[in-house]
Amino acid sequence: MSHHRPHPAPASTPVTTTDAEAPFLELLARGASADAYEQPVLLARAEGADPARTAALERAKRLALTVRAEMEGRRRREAELSALFETAHDLAGLRDLDSVLQAIVQRARSLLGTDVAYLTLNDPARGDTYMRVTEGSVAARFQQLRLGMGEGLGGLVAQTARPYVTDDYSKDVRFQHTRTIDAGVGDEGLVAILGVPLMLGPQVIGVLFAADRRARVFEREQIALLGSFAALAAAAIDTANLLTETRQALAELERANAIIRAGSAVVERASEVHDRLGELVLRGGGVHDVAAAVSEVLDGTVEFADVEDAPGDALEASRAEGHAVCHGRDWVAAVAAGGELLGALVLRGHPGLDPVDQRTLERAALVTSLLLLARRSASEAEQRVRGELLDDLLDARDRDPRLLRERAARLHADLDATHVVLVARIEAAAADAEEEAATRRRLWSAADHVAATRHGLAAARDGQAVLLLPLGAGTASAIAAQVAGRLSEAIHEPVTVGASAPVTGVAERAERAAAAHTEARRCLDALRLLGRAGEGAAAEDFGFLGLLLSDSRDIAGFVARTVGEVVDYDARRGTDLVRTLDAYFDSGMSPARTKDALHVHVNTVAQRLERIGRLLGPDWQSPARALEIQLALRLHRLSGSSLRIR
């Protein structure tokens, strides 16, 4: 076969511009890739086209690529402007600063196409800058970084108020490397980092970053775009600060107006309250009647609060000073008798209280304490009856359930409800036997008061107080903590409280109350051994230790509470998050080593850990949570094998 070059076209047959541009117009219309624009030229050369046509095609190709680049640039700028507009719109309706900053970081990460984006703020008090918002980060140490001024890329941006960029941070000698910063960046696996300053006027208040886990060169347009987002973030922070100052100024004006309005009628109100309180005492009114009467006189809302419901610092200050004290926009007057706190009268939303109205609130608190003491005297006989009934339940005697229910009903207790058994013990050592006996009597009296107000039972056993309280809508843990706080406040000594798991059917099967009493004593002993005297807790508060304290050995419940969200997610989606968690802990919580163990890319590990964080909560990598998660993972593996867990 012979090969020959085709004869060039005669000069009299020119190649028109329209013919040369046609194929490239089709490519532009299709939105073809840049590589496709070489095809018409290569095809013409392969067909032996004359040089004039080839040259025309080359010119048309360059022109088409220029148009394509311009169109791509316009589309990119349109997307960037749209994101900036949306962020500015969020800023205009600013309600939650954290949400606006999170949106800025998310959009910056999306538009720049980076693995991670984050924002730090300067701390003038400590002279450094700290992590405020992150997006795409999975390493706990990185999310808690603090950078000194001039340290690392971010510290240098914060110090110089200039953008800095590096395509390989670990090898870049322009920055002051520290062990802490390099360890955090290494845990996150970051390589290329871009940082721009957040400016309020001439002042730098923080830094906005975009970073990749691979080497990358950030273009000038991308640096400018991140700078625009940084300007919006700074404006959001400035707006939030102005709103806070405005709210504080308005609050000051409201307090001043309240003082002016209250001044004109103060003497008349004082006279009225004396008459009304005297009338209440004579007709045997209650504490809530006193609160209602004072509310009308002071033109506000006065409530009686139990010790655990009143603000602690204000309550102690009021008892020590013997006067009502201001707490925010409220006033608190302690209700006390013989050195024992019985509660408080709280005047809500009335910050401007003149001296006469303050004395009125204090006198009302005194009347309230007298009424409570009278009620306590009347309930002493009832206290003995409650103790006898609880003793019968705990001793598991052969009693008639119908009679037990009738006795409980007379005490306003319902033995068919779900209950919690609590054991309370005083931790402070007494100076002598007389003081110890007096302290125990105060404990038993306070425990009975708690039982009476909660429709439960209380008894004294072995120098301790035992309570049977209805569970209601709370948890055993919450009830234990509340009772410990209330008893400690009542007797002015640390009181430790252990609680059982919820128990039902104490009237039908009295041995259940005895078993719950034993479990509560175990929890009480565990609290003392763990150095948590003065606290209240149930078995569920001890994590995996609770499995040993509880009679139920609810291993499945422990696993479900700890890692159930991850296990369920794998089951629904067919993912591999549980295995990733195992490999992550086995690799010393290092994403880099985890990807080697799983034979996947580090970005895959990062995405899985990010999903795990959303399922388990932000503190899942803390030492205590991590220990419980690892134990739950092991128990989960055992429960899926042929072993029987007891």
TrEMBL record:
Transmembrane segments: none annotated. InterPro entries: CdaR-like_regulators, GAF, GAF-like_dom_sf, PucR_C-HTH_dom, PucR_C-HTH_sf. It holds the Pfam family GAF. Residues 96-247 form the GAF domain. PANTHER family: CARBOHYDRATE DIACID REGULATOR, DNA-BINDING TRANSCRIPTIONAL ACTIVATOR ADER. This is Helix-turn-helix domain-containing protein. It comes from Streptomyces xanthii.
